[in-house]
Design goal:
Layout: H1 2-27, H2 33-53, H3 59-65, H4 78-87, H5 93-97, H6 100-111, H7 113-123, H8 127-146, H9 148-151, H10 162-184, H11 191-198, H12 204-231, H13 240-258, H14 262-266, E1 269-273, H15 281-291, H16 293-302, H17 317-339, H18 346-351, E2 353-357, H19 362-369
Antiparallel strand pairs: 1-2
Helix pairs in contact: 1-2, 1-12, 2-7, 4-6, 6-10, 7-8, 7-10, 8-10, 13-15, 16-17
């Protein structure tokens, strides 16, 4: 559990953008109860995975002396015999509470019971598919133990047991049965209600996710391009022009033609003129030039070969520009979006542009999300 708590923030950060994309496209928002349930499900999966893997032994030293897990346990219902042996003929409630074999058996049932509840609540799955998924996950865990963490270790360090498969799968089925009355008391995960309420709203969070998606996508493409240039022998001095061209294509040409950058399109946003027409390339160039000014000014700052303010007082323009851009982009813009009646950033007022939500057809979104059946979908 402790390992899962340390790893969960990293996992959540890695999947944050894909989850937000799917969530905005299905629900019109990236927060709320559905998101809490989804990330709870992710933490649960991480916790049971860590329960299977850790603690990790000291490879060769452990394998040289251990015999516990060297042979898999293939006798079904062997746990009944183990419980009887550990009981030593004592079956009083007190004796059963102190029988470790009973606790081990119960924990193997309980471990995957939440999976049955989650699958029924999140995906509205029937019993048979739920049981098959639970069996598959349990089998994966057992094979992980049998192969020594998929041959990372020279020997198995956890026992492969058929009984674990039986008990885990039973736990999934019991979780599905318990989930029936339980989810009736929980809020509905139907996407249509959230979509009607939030799909048309252009919130600061939605804009921020679009911006992060654009930066991430542009960075990956830029890294790929730099890798190709390096492969073909181009030196660092010749990377500036291709980088500028790529930036203009991503942040100016594409939105000028389609109305959205790829990040905004993912979050169902587009940039329009206040009049309702598509924003032109000049407006987009000014708008994005101001929005990304902290980044390109930082790039200029890092590429100054020698600072000599006495002989080159114009160099002061770079740090002063950085200060102004930080105040405009990181301070003024969030406050304007949150507090201004029109929710428009200063660079939007200057270029007479605005973010507009792209509203999808109801029939299209219904068929994708399955919300008529109360199905939340994997992407919250």
């Amino acid at each position: 559990m402790t390992t899962a708590m340390y790893l969960f923030p990293i996992v959540a950060l890695v999947i944050m953008i894909p989850v937000a994309v799917v969530s905005y496209r299905r629900r019109g928002r990236a927060g709320g109860w559905a998101t809490v349930v989804f990330y709870s499900f992710v933490f649960y999966l991480l916790a049971i995975a860590m329960q299977t893997i850790v603690p990790l032994p000291d490879g060769n030293a452990y394998c040289a002396g251990q015999t516990y897990a060297s042979s898999p346990q293939l006798q079904p219902f062997n746990f009944v015999e183990v419980v009887a042996q550990r009981a030593h003929g004592h079956w009083s409630p007190r004796a059963m509470l102190h029988n470790p074999a009973i606790w081990t058996t119960a924990l193997n049932v309980v471990m995957l019971a939440p999976l049955g509840i989650f699958l029924r609540y999140l995906r509205n799955l029937r019993l048979l598919p739920t049981v098959l998924i639970g069996f598959g996950i349990s089998l994966f865990f057992e094979l992980t133990q049998l192969t020594g963490l998929w041959f990372v270790y020279p020997c198995p360090y956890r026992l492969f047991s058929v009984d674990d498969l039986i008990l885990n799968t039973t736990g999934v089925a019991l979780g599905w049965l318990v989930g029936g009355p339980l989810i009736k008391a929980l809020p509905s995960l139907a996407a249509e209600r959230d979509r009607r309420r939030f799909a048309a709203k252009v919130t600061l969070t939605r804009r921020l996710f679009a911006l992060i998606t654009d930066i991430a996508g542009f960075t990956v493409l830029l890294a790929f391009m730099v890798g190709l240039l390096t492969l073909f022998g181009a030196d660092r001095a010749h990377r500036g022009a291709p980088t500028l061209i790529l930036a203009l294509v991503w942040f100016v040409l594409v939105p000028a033609l389609t109305g959205s950058t790829l990040g905004k399109r993912a979050m169902l946003l587009r940039v329009d003129r206040v009049s309702g027409r598509h924003a032109g390339p000049i407006a987009l160039l000014v708008r994005n030039g101001i929005l990304f000014s902290p980044l390109w000014l930082l790039w200029l700052l890092l590429h100054v070969d020698r600072w000599d303010i006495a002989d080159r007082p114009q160099q002061l323009l770079i740090p002063l520009g950085m200060l102004v851009s930080v105040l405009v982009v990181l301070v003024w813009t969030p406050l304007a979006v949150l507090l201004d009646d029109e929710h428009r950033a200063p660079y939007e007022r200057l270029t007479r542009t605005r973010n507009v939500a792209i509203l999808r057809e109801p029939a299209e979104t219904e068929s994708e999300s399955g919300s008529r059946r109360g199905n939340a979908g994997i992407g919250v």
